[in-house]
Amino acid sequence: MKNSSIGERLKYQRKIKGYSQEELAHRTNVTVRTIQRIEKEEVSPHLNTIKLLAVALEIEVDELVPLENPKEETIKKKWLLLMHATPLTGIFLPLLNVLIPLFLWIHKREDNPMYDKHGIKVINFQMTVLILAILSFVGLLTIEKWGFIIFISVVPICIGIIIFNIIYVVQKNKCYYPFSIPFLRLKKNKTLGLLLMVGLSIFCSCSNPKQETIERLDGSLISKDSITKKIDQLMADTQIYGMAISIFDDNQPVYQKVFGYKDYPNKTVLTDSTNIYGASFSKAVFGVLTMKMVEDGVIDLDTPLESYLPKKIYEYEPQTRWHDDFSSLKEDSLYHKITARMCLDHTTGFKNYRWFEEDNKLRVHHTPGTKYGYSGEGFIYLQVVLEKLTGKGLEQLAQENIFEPLGMENSAYEWKTRFDQDFALGHNEKGESLKKDKDNEPRGGGTLETTAKDYTKFLTAVLNQKLISKESYDEIFSPHIRIRSEKQFGDKANTITDKYDSIRLGYGLGWGYFETPHGKAVFKEGHGSGFVHHSVLFPESGKGIMIMTNFERGNSIFKELLEVTLKDVYTPWEWENYIPYGK
After folding, report:
1. Torsion 487-489-491-493 (CA) sign
2. Which residues of 498-512 are buried (b: 16+ CB within 10 A; e: fewer)?
3. pLDDT value of residue 148
């Protein structure tokens, strides 16, 4: 198959898997007609289409795309193997573990970005190994018992990591070197002498190895200073005067910074411990809380919620001002089909809130589970059932299962008097501060009060799969409903489009979902009372971002922020209505 066309390759791989054209179309959401045209060589497929087909067939992209020069891949593999394997010579002659890959990197880094990236990672690891070897020798002389154990363990561990990467690069063209100090970075404007001086200074002084650059989705690096300057520029251009941002890499926050004011007219400064209204960030927390209830056996995702209660939901006397009043459902013939899964993936058939109905009465507009329609009411319905089943209010459940375990000391689903000491005001389009709403009763879909510091803790826990099991996170971060609407809200929310088919836009449990060449992504927004937020996580790469603003036009810079900080060009910003300020 070496010199065959993409059509022949696709047909060959499809038949090996035993798929018909219709089955492959179903697995990829690439139309049958498109697959037929590719196999007949009538069309040159887009790269995203090829990637979707490769994932469905469980093969690498290059098994579908013919190489113009088949020998080129072999050469690249040989050079990568040399870079990763030659450090083993350091076992016999010290320093060769650094000098040989350094020579290879200098020789090949201009030929292919992959050589540059792999070479830097190898050199950084091997220089770190030299430091560890010296420190372990010092430990041997100064620390009884443990010094000897540390000394004899360094070399076998390092050899194991090298062998692992030799195998990894052969199979995946990827590498992973933990604990490396970033002596070298992907910056072409630095001379080799300067790089070595930086490495030697770190080597000799054991200075702080904290990274000053952040690796983005595509492997490129951006300095933290550049991010800060970009945010300053965007805020000045758009007159957005309050923002908190956290950027994640390797499942940890690597950049956390707060800008501007919590009350712009009075010029009072925003901090990472300032209370910020979370709006629909509430739903992401509630999604994790619900899965904890599923794990505890309180509820099942696919059992109709009505069946858990001894009475019909509309027969209960309301205990709140409005949100647990379901009396209007007495005449509804569809609500009894609603499950927890439907509440969390926005397929209940409820409108966002009952006040969007002309008569302010809650009703189901289509068969539950069949169509996406963003609905805070669905979260309320699920919340009320959980409260009746557990005998505990939402606030107590969240504190016991989420906030207290994560040390989120300044988070709650209701206003706390201690928040009076330091809270942010929302601002309208004119930059005028809005009155703070402090009398909300706890609602899982939208009353979260939190801080930039606390919500960063929550997202960090999600990336590291804490609080609930991996299986539960897999359930949350799966597409339970595909989305094909042109917009999330407004008139075009009912307009069907194929614009987002390439990213398989959908909804998980409390989180939005889409797919990228770098793996799946999950997102959650928040908007209300002058606050506009966005977060997106890439669980497979451990990367992500949290943006919180207290200005109504905050979302006008989200698209550019995502592209600059993460190289995220996949988020469906038009669907989200994140219209850039320049347009």
Report:
1. positive
2. eebbbbbbbbbbbbb
3. 77
Q: pLDDT (tens digit, 9 = 90+) per residue, 230-249?
A: 999 999 999 999 999 999 99
For residue 377, is pLDDT > 90? yes
- Quote the pLDDT of residue 75: 54
> Which of 398, 400, 288, 296 lies closest to 344, judged by CA?
288
Concatenated DSSP letters for 185-232?
A: -S-TTS-HHHHHHHHHHHHHH------SEEE-TTS-EEEHHHHHHHHH
Look up the pTM and report it.
0.67
Strands 543-549 and 242-249: antiparallel
Contacts of 38 (CB under 8 A, 6+ apart): 6, 7, 10, 45, 49
Query: pLDDT band at residue 66, thresholds of 50, 70 and 90?
Result: low
Strands (DSSP E) contained in 473-577 are 481-482, 506-507, 512-516, 519-528, 531-538, 543-549
- The answer, yes or no, to whether residue 396 has pLDDT greater than 90, is yes
**The 3-state secondary structure of 45-77, one letter per residue:** CCHHHHHHHHHHHCCCHHHCCCCCCHHHHHHHH
328 or 130: which leads in pLDDT: 328
The length of the chain, given as a count of residues: 583
CB contact at 8 A, 503 and 576: no
Contacts of 75 (CB under 8 A, 6+ apart): none
Distance between CA atoms of 236 and 553, rounded to whole angstroms? Answer: 13
